[in-house]
Amino acid sequence: MMPTTKNIHLKILFSIFLLSALFSCDQKKTVKTITPKNPDGITFISVSNIGGSLGQYRIIKITEDSIVAEKGITSNKTHTEWASAINTNTWKQLISSIRTGDLDDIKSSPSQQSVDGMDETFQIRTPKKSHIYVNSYVDTLHYRQFQLLKEQIDNILPKEYQ
Fold this sequence. Notes:
Blueprint: H1 2-24, E1 44-51, E2 56-63, E3 66-73, E4 78-85, H2 88-95, E5 118-125, E6 130-134, H3 143-156
């Protein structure tokens, strides 16, 4: 029994020594900060329509190099997804209708889902902030840019996702 006890004490002593050695190491962590090309530029766009009595949804997510669309109906558990790469010119065309100076001024409206309505949600991300708008079509002063964006997105999407 003595050799086993001696081995356990040696294992504990070695573990303490190893842990103290690890904690005493002074590692400097290098944090890389990525400076965006344009701090007010758009980095992400999402457009979704969610709601209705059957739980329909269509969600489109776009970055400067890809577009992903998904749609379905939760009541019958259907879901389809489509994805594609996009080029720089397509991205520039999509974001050209959005005036980043207006993003803080665009108004949202109450959700319509509680009355079996559909909610249209836009998310526009810049390096500084993420802007989310629900049913902003009531903001007639600023909504035209979102309408143009939706039309441009529909030109990219396959018919079944429009």
